[in-house]
Amino acid sequence: MNRTPLARLLALALLLAAGTAWAYEAGERVANFSGVDAAGRRHSLDDVRGKPVVLVVWSSKCPASRSYGPALQRLAKRFAGRAVFLGIAPSAGETPESVREGKRRAGIEFPVLLDAGGRIARSFGAVMTPSVYVIDGERILRYQGSVADRPRDPKQPHLERALEAVLAGRRPPRAKTRVVGFRIQY
User: Fold this and answer.
1) Residues 44-88 pLDDT 10s
2) Is 70:106 a contact under the CB 8 Å cutoff?
3) Residue 5 — very low, low, confident or very high, per pLDDT cuts 50/70/90?
4) One-letter-per-residue 3-state SS of 109-162
């Protein structure tokens, strides 16, 4: 049996699939993105040029997103003026109302953009909520992963350490950590 055509077809399929799975990696420059929050206000990465941005991929339907809400808001408050926190809600079925209610229940005050279809989240390779990404003031992705090892009293506050390092002009101790949460339903 001649397997060459089958092997070529399989190789082509793998190449095409790999092309659709592209996502930013730590050390890469992030392109501008924009979206509208639940209050109807437009936000973009260009709006905060020169400041680090913490991008939070979040869902009003995700228990893990809600449980990390207080920790995220504490960090947003602690780093206010030095870094910008911005959420995106890519899950299917998210509406301005569900995002507003989810933010209220989670104690989040920073803007959360509606990311219908997950265009922004997919560009970062997000598959779970909550996932966080630290982008430095030069638009370089410096950290991607989890907020911490657990919502309360974390032993490994990954996001906090990454943001402190970026603000001090250093690389984070870890550029990537594993996210534990719920799969995004695009």
Assistant:
1) 999 999 999 999 999 999 999 999 999 999 999 999 999 999 999
2) yes
3) low
4) CCCEEECHHHHHHHHCCCCEECEEEEECCCCEEEEEECCCCCCCCCCCCHHHHH
CB 168 within 8 A of CB 135: no
pTM, two decimal places: 0.88
In a domain, 3, yes or no: no
CB 54 within 8 A of CB 86: yes
Nearest to 34 by CA among 20, 49, 50: 49
Grouping H, G, I as helix, E, B as strand and the rest as coil, residue 173 is coil
Quote the CA–CA distance of 90 and 11 in Å, as a whole number.
31
Q: Which domain holds residue 123?
A: 22-183
Segment 146-168 mean pLDDT: 96
* Domain annotation covers residue 16: no
* CA 172 to centroid of chain Cα atoms: 16
Total of domains in the chain: 1
